[in-house]
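Please fill in the sequence for the structure shown.

STRUCTURE ENCODING:
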């Protein structure tokens, strides 16, 4: 029995509630998809590279309000030998994407715009019955998350959060180990986003120099410096939780027999971005006078109904090498990402680390074994290929989205909750149950079990 049959049979028999966000109307098997993309900036173009490399996707419509980015994306489609796509937004109309959604030949749309646009664009797309693959995050406010969820439930339009780190090879091997009980019963998980973004949040504004080229942002900046920096000035919280929490939530079976119950966040003082600007431009540059609300290191703790704790850290404004800092710890042992170490009691030398790669080679996830060659060369070490493959294949055969609406809103709502916690003096808050009780009956079936 394949995954879809299993889901349908289970749902029909009333034994599973996993298919509850899936509408059979979209289950028309198709061999090829016609996709649109809203936001053809650096991320959109990179995702499109993976999509254009497949034989089963045609990019038929693109929307961006920045003509340079739009033109580059059109050129990429043409270079791949596909017909020139319809374009929208070159006139600067921020709502031009709605005209794209009116096209009658779209099988789905990828949203890769600034965060504040994700919820309104996804809601409009779902209302127009255009399936959505949305870049992280799902929304800004807690209300956004409920609105995205309700729209999905009311329209039945497929929605997937394109959380690529869930597909990282070591993360999937660790999940495979956890599923096979190698770590024993899981007790504690860690993850985060620890990436020096100072040179992303400020640049020269030149379209060919998006990284580390200057100290401008907003209208004078380019790409993420145009919009992301403002969030550091105005907001304090874990603004980018899904790369860390996605894998942890999979490991802990969140929304499928488990759920987040309580959350708090602590934020350090903000020094990194100010010091960077003074260092680069001197104390008299106007941007050296900026005040940043966003603490340099934001630490979030989450409790789960089944007794696990999860720790997330956002650390993007200080000098540091990249690390998502995963830790998967159970009654029999643990994996720690940062030292590339696995220790399993009775198998590893006492009180010593094994090289994690030895374990990961043995427990390489079947999906990676199957697709490693195809994914090689795609963005972020291949995981971008996997997340798009999940979206495309599920849409083609009418499967439920591999990372579904409950995952999306649960992971992404950490942001407004952490802002609320910090604003309230690092208060511990109840975590909303977006499944409204369904988490108890939903079974642990994910993306990673799909077979594609
Ligand atoms: N999953 C990942 O690994 C990953 C990596 C990078 C970025 N991202 C996410 O992708 C998204 C885009 O990031 P980016 O780096 O490409 O930023 P970017 O600034 O390079 O691209 C965003 C594009 O959206 C366009 N845009 C803004 N408002 C618009 C509107 N109303 N209509 C149409 N287009 C509009 C901009 O002109 C810009 O070209 C963000 O949400 C970011 O967090 C995810």
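FILLED IN BY: designer on duty
SEQUENCE:
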């Amino acid at each position: 029995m394949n995954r879809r049959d299993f889901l349908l049979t289970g749902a029909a028999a009333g034994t599973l509630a996993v298919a509850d966000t899936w509408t059979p109307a979209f289950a028309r098997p198709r061999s090829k998809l016609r996709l649109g993309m809203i936001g053809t900036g650096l991320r959109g173009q990179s995702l499109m590279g993976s999509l254009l490399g497949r034989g089963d996707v045609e990019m038929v419509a693109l929307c961006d309000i920045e003509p340079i980015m739009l033109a580059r994306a059109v050129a990429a489609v043409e270079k791949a030998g596909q017909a020139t796509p319809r374009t929208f937004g070159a006139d600067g109309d921020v709502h031009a994407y709605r005209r794209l959604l009116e096209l009658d030949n779209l099988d789905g749309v990828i949203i890769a715009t600034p965060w504040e646009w994700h919820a309104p664009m996804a809601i409009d797309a779902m209302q127009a019955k255009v399936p959505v693959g949305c870049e992280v995050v799902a929304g800004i406010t807690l209300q956004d998350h409920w609105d995205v969820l309700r729209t999905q439930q009311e329209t039945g339009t497929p929605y997937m959060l394109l959380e690529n780190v869930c597909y990282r090879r070591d993360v999937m091997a660790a999940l495979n180990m956890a599923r096979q009980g190698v770590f024993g019963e899981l007790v504690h998980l860690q993850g985060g986003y620890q990436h020096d973004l100072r040179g992303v949040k400020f640049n020269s504004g030149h379209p060919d120099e998006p990284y580390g080229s200057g100290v401008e942002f907003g209208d004078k900046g380019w790409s993420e410096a145009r919009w992301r920096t403002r969030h550091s000035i105005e907001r304090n919280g874990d603004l980018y939780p899904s790369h860390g929490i996605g894998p942890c939530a999979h490991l802990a079976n969140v929304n499928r027999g488990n759920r987040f119950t309580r959350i708090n966040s602590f934020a350090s003082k903000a020094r990194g971005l100010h010091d960077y600007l003074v260092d680069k431009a001197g104390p008299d540059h106007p941007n050296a006078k900026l005040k940043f609300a966003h603490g340099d290191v934001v630490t979030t703790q989450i409790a789960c109904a089944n007794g696990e704790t999860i720790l997330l850290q956002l650390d993007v404004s200080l000098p540091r090498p990249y690390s998502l800092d995963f830790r998967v710890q159970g009654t029999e042992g643990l994996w720690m990402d940062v030292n590339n170490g696995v220790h399993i009691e009775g198998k590893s030398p006492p009180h010593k680390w094994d090289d994690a790669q030895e374990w990961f080679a043995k427990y390489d996830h079947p999906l990676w074994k199957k697709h490693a060659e195809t994914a090689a060369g795609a963005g972020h070490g291949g995981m971008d290929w996997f997340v798009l493959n999940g979206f495309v294949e599920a849409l083609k055969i009418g499967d439920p989205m591999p990372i579904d609406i409950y995952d999306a809103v649960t992971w992404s709502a950490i942001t407004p909750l952490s802002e609320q916690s910090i604003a309230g003096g690092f208060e511990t808050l109840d975590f909303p149950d977006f499944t409204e009780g369904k988490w108890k009956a939903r079974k642990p079936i994910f993306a990673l079990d799909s077979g594609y």
